[in-house]
Amino acid sequence: MSFRGTNASSGMGVAEQSKNTYLELQRKKVHRYVIFKIDEKKKEVVVDKTGAPAESYDDFIESLPENDCRYAVYDFDFVTAENCQKSKIFFVSWSPSVSRIRAKMLYATSKDRFRRELQGIHYEIQATDPTEMDLEIIKERAH
Question: pTM value?
């Protein structure tokens, strides 16, 4: 299988816009979530979609493609038992079972390098279908 000159073990580069958009989510709370995709022509991870702060977890789930891989970060706000407002950032590696094998391999080999670029991630989830990242799972991990 050819990767058109890309060294699969090294992964893709990360677009500056991707890092900046993540920082906007993390520090300025400009986005509820950011979905990233691999641009094979540019050989880097780029922003695919962002969600406004008012968008829900369901909006986030619906934004993930049914048949293609993506990376995503989701800023989960919640209130603790002590009535304190908290926020945890989740990194999601989305790899639906129906996506192309080549896409799954490309996303799997690029994940660690991309993930290292995003400082301040609290939890990581790998999902092949929406049930593996149900809101109850997110709540359980955050508390």
Answer: 0.90
